[in-house]
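ok trying again, last paste got cut off:
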Amino acid sequence: MGWLEQKRIDLLERSLAGLEWVARRRGEEAGLAAHLATGIEGETAALFHLRRKGYRVVARRWSSGNLRGDIDLIAWQGPVLCFVEVKTRTAHDIAPAEVRVDGHKRNTLHRLARHYVRQLPMETRPPVRFDILSVYLVPGEEKEFVHFEGAFGWSERRHGDRWDDWP
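nice, full thing came through this time. structure:
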């Protein structure tokens, strides 16, 4: 990624931060629970982190409309479609943030990812990867990112699910 693209991403991130600051000052986030506001801030930081790494983010907080749950970020890394679960923390707890993606959440992500891929206007299905991106927003410290590429795969699906020709 070139210098100009990096600067463009930096400018977009700062602009969004400024708009969020204005919204907070106007009290437009007053009804939002603190943990939800932290999660949104972490997703935003994760989005720009991935863009700086060369990912092309195509969706944020994607939901199918008829299935429960959502996918935090969907991005392309070259030919690979990545479904990214973002976990945000404001402190380094005993257990790292990424361990919070349990079997139930993985099953939800599998179901949603399958639905997303089936609606793509492609003749062949792209290679798919499931990532976990832990974001630590510790007050007074720099943002910290821990990215687990390929954190889990399709083989963890529930018994009885049919994935047709999926691996």
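cool. The longest strand covers residues 80-89. Confidence is low (pLDDT under 50) at residues 157-167.
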